[in-house]
Amino acid sequence: MRSSVRVVLVVVAVLAASALAWRGLFVTDSAADLIVTSATGATVRAAGAAITRPVRAGHIVRSRDQLSVEEGGRAVLEMGDATRLELAERSSIRVL
Questions:
Q1: Whole-angstrom distance, CA of residue 26 vs CA of residue 69
Q2: pLDDT tens digit string along 56-91?
Q3: Are 44 and 67 in contact (CB under 8 A)?
Q4: Mind spelling out the 3-state secondary structure of the chain?
């Protein structure tokens, strides 16, 4: 009887540890999202080989996105509370 209880406790501990590890590896925190907080002028996004589309404030930048700011444009991206990235005209960034 005692060995059965031990086995059950070990299985529960392994499942709990696995769930925590999975969450840590695969669940993204919204605080880590790269978000466009402002975009002026011609600021466009291309995802992979997709057609480019205008970018507006509130857009979440995803993996494989490329943002381009054309002449006269400007974009500000933020991630969490401490990271701010400003793109001036005629610049671009690609998220890996």
A1: 31
A2: 999 988 888 889 999 999 999 998 888 999 999 999
A3: yes
A4: CHHHHHHHHHHHHHHHHHHHHHHHHHCCCHHHCEEEEEEECCEEEEECCCCCEECCCCCEECCCEEEEECCCCEEEEEECCCEEEEECCCEEEECC
Q: What is the pTM of this model?
A: 0.63
The answer to whether 68 and 87 have CB atoms below 8 angstroms apart is no
Q: What does the pLDDT look like over 30-48, one tens digit per residue?
A: 556 889 999 998 888 887 6
| Burial per residue of 24-41, b for 16 or more beta-carbon CB atoms within 10 angstroms, e otherwise | eeeeeeeeeebebeebee
